[in-house]
Amino acid sequence: MFKLKISVLAVAGILCTASANSADLHPVNTVVTSIPWMNTSLTADQRADLVLKEMTQDEKLKLVFGHFGSELAWKNLKMHPAAIPHSAGYVEGVPRLGIPAQFETDAGVGVATQGSGPTARERTSLSSGMSTAASWNQKLAFKSGAMIGAEARASGFNVMLAGGVNLMREPRNGRNFEYAGEDPLLAGTIVAAQINGIQSNHVISTLKHYAVNSQETGRFTLNAKIDDASARMSDLLAMQIAIEKSDPGSVMCSYNRLNGVYACENDYLLNQVLKADWGYHGYVMSDWGATHSTVAAANNGLDQESGWEFDASPYFSGALKEAVTNGAVPQARLDNMLKRILRTMFDKGLFDYPVPKDNTIDFAAHALVSQYGAEEGMVLLKNDANVLPLHKDLKKIAIIGSHADVGVLSGGGSSQVYPIGGNAVKGLEPAAWPGPVVYHPSSPLKAIQRYMPQAQISYDTGTDIKAATALAAQSDIVLVFATQWIGEANDAVSLSLPSNQDALITALAAANKKTVVVLETGGPVTMPWINQVASVLEAWYPGTSGGEAIARVLVGEVNPSGHLPVSFAASESQLPRPVLDGDPAKPDQRFDVSYHEGATIGYKWFDAKGLKPLFAFGHGLSYTKFAYSGFSSKYINNTMQVKFTVTNTGKVAGKDVPQVYVSPTAGKWEAPKRLVAWDKVELLPGESKSVSLNVDLRLLGMYDSKTKTWQINAAAYKVILARSAGDSDAASITVNLPASSLNVLGKKIK
Ligand code: BGC
Fold first, then answer.
1. How far is CA 625 from CA 20, 171, 295, 358, in A?
2. CATH number of residue 680's parent domain
3. DSSP states of 280-332 as a string?
4. In 3-state terms, what secondary structure has residue 489?
5. CA angle (344, 350, 351) in 5-degree steps
6. What is the best residue among 111, 114, 161, 198 to mutate for testing ligand 1's pocket, by most ligand atoms within 8 Å of CB?
7. Which of 287, 291, 310, when mutated, tests ligand 1's pocket best, judged by the most ligand atoms within 8 Å of its CB?
């Protein structure tokens, strides 16, 4: 057996202080260079094979078995002593062989802390995943990912449970804010950019939650029913695109069942689609509490049990050892789990770039990254009579509601990032999981006051509608802030704003025509007052610099350029499921959710049913105007190209999001049109830029389950250059495509 020299043993596993606070004390692994698998001229595969050969069975079992990084009080379980306190997870390493431990942290908006209290890690939070998707800006998503990945690494973590790409099938889903909207191309592309950013720090990123994990009600038990072709053209396509564009080190299988089988023991999802069809070579980790068996899970493709304390039993510990011994799980399967985990650790740099001892975080610089993301994700939904940007001569401004005097809202659950400076609004319900409700201490009011020093700004809590209305009536303009808190395990009960906020906004709009609504919501909400108010700005959950970002958009320091990554329904009756399936009061209830809409999600559903949403997917206003010219499209060398020029015809600089949709004139798709490409173009007044885009041919075909191919019909296709999915004035041209077949990965075979 291979043995490291004493000197090497001495450096592996030393303790060090990991920056900002004492909660970060943890063991750090040190690079060992004198051993065969540390030879960086070898491939990750070769290195993994070399170290795997040296491992004992017990050592192998350590790497497939994850611990929770925090106490589990309700089970009376203490955290693993080597885990980073209040973190998501810990997987032991093998110091004898220099194999680093895995330190896992949530999640997509930054470095989270499990539970709050005096030990919360204070870190930078990005705006929500929905907001990043609303930027339609891949470079920004990369930079945002790079920033939170850097904070993860500086906090001692080498695995970040980030890259949430579940499509929004259910606008009331409590986790929509963690995800990237309703379109497979947009969501997959933006999340891929974020993962690339995270992984640029030698941190493994985890794409989640695989798959069709679309609501929180009944999340541990519900059975998502959907056919293969529909899934491949929607939820799975988003995952596939994200994997192809970013090669995430791991994929997290979800809580729900899919067509009767739990996702983490689902041969179809894990072995057939992910590993065989897509050729994924990373590892599959379970969600915390999503492992339900040893033999079925192992043989059907699960590579690592996470947070075993949440499961009914430590399935991948002694039971797995026994299952391998008695042949129920082949040794080759265990070795393949290890190969996947080790290969990924080599490939992403966990061996070569151990988490550092000296890890300061440049919080000031990171605050700006968060701010830019929040600014670019904000969507100006309505702006009558150019009420925004706020006119410099305004004298009396009323700011009303949602604690806009002190902070901005964030979403709850495992992704919760605790801000520097602490929660701006303490004591709100729910105080316990998936709470506490956290307001980042970035005050919109104070920031607006800084940009509008001449104005007299008054704040009213909005709890007494009469008092708020009186203030509104005597103000030049009203900025009413409205919030909707959602979180993991906690779907919105309806699409309406909670806590009587619709009544408040209606009353304010009646008192003052210049009423501007600023929304801080996890996803879409209904707006019964939309015709009465002047403007609406969707700010989502805007992160730790959110107050500043909101102010800068309202005053025109920043020209809004976000576009909706989801459709906003006019009412629940327009949804595929007007009433959410399941009963939130009965979390153990087993029930089916039939995704009868198949791949017809979001704008595709609205188009197919001839419904007019409140705001269409892709919609977003600007303080300037853009014109399109020179629009052309052709199919050449098995590629569909689209070209056009965008001109800023207004008076201020801005960023446009031209969107290309395709619609077949013959043959049936799941919907009249699909988004096939877009760009984000920054332009000074009067400036023009030409744009050239190529279309992923899968988006022009229908998936055929029998042959595992994408079939493109010979037909004329309308190529549409639009400002949103609801753009009735969009220019279109027709392109003829020959019949062709693409393999499952989208490569042309015929
Ligand atoms: C969530 C995951 C998260 C994990 C670890 C689970 O409850 O579903 O998204 O990564 O906890 O905190």
1. 45, 30, 60, 48
2. 2.60.40.10
3. --SEEEE-TT----SHHHHHTT--BB--GGGSSS-TTTHHHHHHHHTTSS-HH
4. coil
5. 105
6. 161
7. 287
Q: Which two tokens stand for residue 400?
A: 């009303």
- Give me the count of residues in the chain: 750
The amino acid that residue 460 corresponds to is D
* Residue range(s) defining the domain that contains residue 38: 6-347
Strand stretches in 355-513, DSSP E: 379-383, 396-400, 408-409, 439-440, 456-460, 477-484
Cα distance between residue 106 and residue 467, in whole Å:
42
Tens of pLDDT, residue by residue over 251-298, are 999 999 999 999 999 999 999 999 999 999 999 999 999 999 999 999
Distance 246 CA to ligand 1 centre (A): 21
- Residue ranges of the chain with per-residue pLDDT less than 50: 1, 3, 5-28
Q: Of all protein residues, whose CA lies closest to atom 2 belonging to ligand 1?
A: 287
Please state the atom number of ligand 1 nearest to the C-alpha of residue 107.
10
Residues 163 and 220 in one domain: yes
Nearest CA to ligand 1 atom 5: 88
Tokens of 103: 């330190």
Is cis: bond before 434, omega within 30 of 0? yes
SS3 245: helix
Q: Which residues line ligand 1 (CB under 6 A)?
A: 88, 106-107, 161, 208, 287-288, 414
Question: Which helix (H) or strand (E) segment is 238 a member of?
Answer: helix 235-246
pLDDT score, position 359:
81
Nearest CA to ligand 1 atom 6: 288
Instruction: With respect to residue 589, please indicate whether it lies within any of the assigned structural domains.
Output: no
Are residues 372 and 562 in contact, defined by beta-carbon separation less than 8 angstroms? Answer: no
| Closest protein CA for atom 8 of ligand 1 | 287
Among the atoms of ligand 1, which is closest to the Cα of residue 414? 12
Domain shared by 296 and 404, yes or no: no
**To 10 degrees, the CA torsion angle through 108, 111, 112, 118?**
-160
Domain end: 295, 330, 347, which one?
Answer: 347
Instruction: Give the total number of structural domains in the chain.
Output: 3
Distance between Cα 353 and ligand 1 center (Å): 26
Strand-pair category, 639-648 with 159-161 = unpaired
CA of 157 to the centre of ligand 1 (A): 16
Name the closest-CA residue to atom 11, ligand 1: 288
**Cα–Cα–Cα angle for 72, 74, 77, rounded to 5 degrees:** 40
Q: What is the pLDDT of residue 25?
A: 36
Q: What is the pLDDT of residue 17?
A: 29
What's the rounded Cα separation, in Å, for the pair 8 and 347? Answer: 22
Distance 288 CA to ligand 1 centre (A): 6
pLDDT tens string 438-472: 999 999 999 999 999 999 999 999 999 999 999 99
Catalytic amino acids? 287
- State residue 32's pLDDT score: 53
Query: Tell me, what's the pLDDT at 142?
Result: 98
Residues 398 and 257 in one domain: no
- Residue carrying structure tokens 């940009």: 451
d(C-alpha 367, C-alpha 359), whole Å: 17
